[in-house]
């Protein structure tokens, strides 16, 4: 049941908040941007209109962006109250359930009949288009010419430092810094546009991690952006060092936002761009960080300085939308397991983990994924839901993304943001098809930015509502402690490596669109943590969680954890066991109700706060991703599930 209403406009003052939000999500017409009929030439018309704008600074360009927003919009179907209601532990995708149906794909080799949005005439550098980079002579091509013909180069050429003709390497750290600094300076020279190049932290090898902030708010500090009332989009690239297309694409997007065709979107949104989260991995061409940890499995635990830097940035700026740009293996283990090559230009996914709010999943699907499909299809780019498989060649199961609360995609959903994953086919390809890979990322990211600008008003309703509703669920309602995917079968469309023809491969398929509950418990009012739980408190505060300190000793009614059994092992993941500093603890527990002493200087973490769902993932001990399982919390005796509002004196941890 929904308890806390949103602020209601006068014309709907008598309407229940959940019904009004359903009506908003189901509206066929966005509140601010009128939608003309969508046609096959819609995006081409937008670009032509933009090119008629001298200097790209006139009302004609604003009209072009309005038209582009319409091109990437999909009318929302009616959402009948009570329909598609998520049960605990279940993520319901409005478009489909279980095995996904592939959207209609363009014919093989069919060139796009529209120009990429956004690109300046002659390429991003403003000069003559550079010749598309080619694979080095010593880089083996993992498939034949017939497969290559399925992925023709795009109709435009991108020219970041790492995409120049003749290059054998991608953009270096120093080149990236100079590029971002140039965009910040170019933005600062324009009336009303504010920019800042932030150093948000260092990698394990002491390489800087930088973020570019672009806004039309009064300044670039977090408080001013939040007070602007505009949604903030955070774009993240190259968490895995061997996935360069996202990083190069974000340099393109930075240029277009600071001084190109995307700039007018800053009238309605703020944007933060982090092109390269894993500088050490990028320098060595490896997936993991220098320590061997997978950065994209560290967004709950925050064991690495890289993950901590991104968490701190998100805590301060509170993005409404997060896009995580990745690449996936085109051949490799798929070719070894199934005798086939990956077929799709882009694999897309949003948050699919336990306790994801129903309305957030709805917005992910209807406001973002469907427009993404439209935008990519208009460019002749093929799409599918994200999926992966383990490195074990005997394991033929394919998983539709992980459901654990540890990836950026899932953690930022638990932080109540629209959280989207865009994966292009690139791992193992070197520079092969790099222009098409970057083109796919630029098209997808542009669609997300346009959708956010179009839906700024609705996001302004949705996100405060989610925060209030999650806070109100403390001390009541059942929450899912652990969930798993739904197993099934799926006909996966791949490519024959020699002929390039479609090859249908029947596979065992774990769907993350509908989750099954493994463990569920009543939500506590909060968690008491012992005074020595400083590491856990620091990690929670990096996430933005409010933590209270017990200033006078007292007692609480709650449930302690009694360990029933324990094993140790590797931390599981859909790709196979994860590297970790030490084995995780797999504990089975029972709950013991009692009155417990809480000494002075211990901690209380209330669940009636917007990040309540994140707290469940971190502090319930008997899951593979929890703080206890991964030794952030050292013992079970130091945690109590507080089951009534505590009557002890508390003060906020500064």
Notes on the structure:
By secondary structure, this protein is α+β, with helices and mostly antiparallel strands. The protein has two domains: 413 residues, Zn peptidases (Aminopeptidase, 3-Layer(aba) Sandwich); 129 residues, no CATH class. The protein is 28% helix and 22% strand. It is built from 16 helices and 19 strands. The strands form three sheets. Strands 1-2-4-3-5-10-6-7 form an eight-stranded mixed β-sheet, with helices on both faces. A seven-stranded antiparallel β-sheet has the order 16-15-18-13-17-14-19, with no helix packed on it. It has a four-stranded mixed β-sheet with strand order 8-9-12-11. A hairpin with an 8-residue loop joins strand 8 and strand 9. It is globular, with a radius of gyration of 24 Å.
Report on the biggest sheet.
8 strands, mixed
Please name the fourth-level CATH homologous superfamily of the largest domain.
Answer: Zn peptidases
What oligomeric state do the depicted chains represent? single chain
Counted by DSSP, the helix tally is 16
Mean pLDDT: 84
Q: What is the CATH class name of the largest domain? A: Alpha Beta
- What structural category do the secondary elements indicate? alpha+beta
Count of individual domains:
2
Tally the beta strands.
19
CATH topology of the largest domain: Aminopeptidase
Stretches with pLDDT under 50, minimum 5 residues: 1-15, 24-138
Give the overall shape, derived from the CA principal axes: globular
Rg over CA atoms, rounded to whole Å, is 24 Å
Strand content: 15-25%
Helical residues, percent: 25-40%
Give the terminus-to-terminus CA distance: 34 Å
At CATH's second level, what is the architecture of the largest domain?
3-Layer(aba) Sandwich
Largest sheet, order of strands side by side? 1-2-4-3-5-10-6-7
